[in-house]
């Protein structure tokens, strides 16, 4: 019972409720409030008496109206179901509930029952479908309660066992089992009943049914279990196994005949098989030895070929890369001797610069060899420390800008936090090598783009140029030792730089990839995972 009536609050609340509602004054049996839903749905407005509303709007008979008014006078709750009045209206329930005794008012509301009625209709249809399936199934279906009493049995099962419809209801399931098998089949069924498990039809189990007039026939049974308010039930699907058993007997006889023939054939074949086995064993040993010898020879040839290729590339590279700066030094020294007593100091300085450049070149080549040696020997270990990624990148750019060709521009953008945990020396060498390559293999008046990102999933670096590019078929060899692309053989280089860069990146748990199109440019992408210290703040 509603404990209080506060007019303004209560009426405002009722206006928001999605059902027809009104407030009645008990003594006058008239409405003092009708909400918007009721006004629109039943086309009513104040003043309105309860009698008029019930008879004219809800089509309730005068006798029933008199009973309702009596219940209201005695402060009893009224509940009445209402059937649809028109094709557009729906099932509903009328409820009139008195407020607290200190208030002489009652609350009237009408709830929509169309969904419940529709559910009942759907349930009825499903029941009809079940009955059609149950009654027309081409297998026997039996339903037993927890006392093994039959509560349902379909027509096909009655026909299987020779009974009339309804004759077995209330009988024990064991009425359908031959006496000599009751104990065995009860034991086979018991584990499934105790655990309430499903059992599929198993041909391995020897199950038999007994017809009304005493005849036995083989069967297969699938069991299922379910629970309702009435208790536990077992559902059994029964298949007549007579034909399968007959076929099994025919097949068994055929197998026995075949077994006798096979026994004779086996005796004849055993001697031959033994000789074949001996010869095959000898042949397999010989082939295995030949295969091992061939594999060992192929491995040795591959290793020798790889070693010779590496030696050839190293000799070719070394002879070219050392000869060029040495020739520069030799020619500059020769010319210096010519200008040594001359007062033309500019020419002397020019050749001294050439000598210094050539010496630096040789020094770079030797440093690459030393770096490679240290990596191969495991003497380089990354020293992770807190660095400013943006400032380190800009510092590397500042070091390399004096080497830019005429009109070349290096641009850098950074996104995200600037802190990172990486080896400053290794990362600087990576930037210098990749920027140096971008300058070396790009034309004048071109742009070199460097992008650095600090994201939640890690650090991302991109270095792009507008250079000559790398052939697609050569890109898979790009990070191998001494590899140089065919289109850069006339440009100074050892073929070790990118290999060393990739090894440095691996030491810091990163990876590098390359995308390149000839005559358009190349982009190197480097990714490092975030250090745990900065994982959540990235």
Any overview of this molecule?
- Residues 1-5 have low confidence and may be disordered.
- The protein has 538 residues and is an alpha+beta fold.
- The protein has helices at residues 7-16, 36-42, 50-57, 62-73, 114-136, 155-161, 179-195, 242-339, 345-376, 389-400, 424-440, 497-507, and strands at 20-25, 30-34, 78-82, 92-98, 105-112, 140-145, 150-153, 207-210, 216-228, 231-240, 385-388, 409-416, 419-422, 447-455, 458-465, 511-517, 521-528.
- It starts with 6 loop residues before the first helix and ends in a 10-residue tail after the last strand.
- The protein is built from twelve helices and 17 strands.
- The longest helix is centred in the middle third of the chain and has 98 residues, at 242-339.
């Amino acid at each position: 019972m509603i404990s209080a009536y506060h007019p303004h609050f209560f009426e405002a609340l009722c206006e928001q409720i999605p059902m027809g509602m009104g407030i009645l004054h008990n003594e006058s049996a008239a409405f003092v409030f009708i909400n918007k839903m009721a006004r629109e749905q039943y086309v009513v407005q104040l003043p309105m008496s309860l009698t008029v509303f019930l008879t004219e709007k809800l089509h309730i008979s005068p006798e029933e109206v008199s009973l309702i008014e009596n219940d209201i006078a005695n402060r009893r709750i009224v509940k009445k179901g209402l059937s649809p009045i028109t094709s557009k209206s729906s099932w509903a329930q009328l409820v009139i509930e008195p407020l607290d005794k200190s208030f002489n008012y009652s609350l009237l509301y009408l709830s929509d029952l169309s969904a419940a009625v529709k559910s009942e209709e759907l349930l009825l249809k499903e029941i009809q479908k079940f009955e059609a399936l149950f009654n027309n199934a081409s297998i026997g279906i039996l339903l037993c309660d927890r006392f093994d009493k039959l509560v349902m049995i379909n027509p096909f099962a009655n026909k299987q066992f020779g009974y009339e419809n309804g004759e077995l209801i209330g009988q024990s399931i064991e009425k359908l089992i031959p006496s000599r098998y009751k104990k065995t089949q009860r034991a086979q069924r018991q584990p499934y009943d105790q655990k309430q498990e499903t059992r599929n039809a198993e041909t391995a189990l020897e199950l038999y049914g007994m017809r009304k007039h005493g005849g036995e026939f083989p069967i297969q049974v699938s069991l299922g279990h379910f629970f309702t308010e009435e208790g536990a039930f077992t559902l059994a699907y029964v298949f007549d196994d007579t034909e399968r058993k007959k076929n099994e007997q025919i097949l068994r006889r055929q197998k026995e005949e075949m077994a006798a023939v096979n026994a004779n054939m086996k005796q004849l074949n055993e001697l031959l098989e033994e000789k074949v086995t001996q010869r095959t064993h000898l042949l397999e040993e010989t082939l295995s030895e030949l295969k091992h010898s061939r594999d060992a020879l192929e491995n040795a040839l591959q290793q020798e070929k790889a070693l010779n290729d590496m030696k050839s590339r190293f000799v070719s590279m070394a002879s070219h890369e050392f000869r060029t700066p040495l020739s520069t030094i030799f020619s500059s020294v020769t010319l210096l001797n010519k200008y040594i007593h001359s007062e033309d100091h500019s020419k002397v300085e020019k050749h001294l610069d050439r000598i210094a450049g050539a010496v630096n070149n040789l020094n770079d080549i030797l440093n690459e060899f030393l770096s490679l040696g240290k990596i191969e020997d495991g003497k380089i270990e990354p020293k992770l420390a807190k660095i400013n990624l943006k400032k380190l990148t800009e510092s590397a750019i500042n070091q390399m800008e004096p080497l830019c060709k005429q009109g070349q521009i290096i641009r850098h953008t950074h996104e995200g936090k600037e802190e990172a945990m990486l080896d400053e020396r290794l990362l600087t060498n990576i930037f210098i090598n990749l920027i140096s390559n971008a300058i070396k293999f790009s034309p004048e008046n071109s742009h070199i783009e460097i992008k650095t990102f600090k994201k939640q999933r890690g650090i991302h670096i991109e270095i792009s140029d507008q250079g000559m590019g790398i052939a697609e078929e050569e890109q898979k060899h790009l990070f191998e030792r001494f590899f140089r692309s065919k289109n850069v053989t006339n440009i100074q280089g050892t073929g070790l730089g990118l290999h060393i860069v990739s090894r440095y990146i691996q030491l810091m748990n990163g990876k590098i990839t390359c995308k390149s199109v000839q005559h358009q440019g190349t982009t190197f992408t480097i990714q490092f995972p975030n250090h745990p210290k900065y994982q959540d703040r990235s």
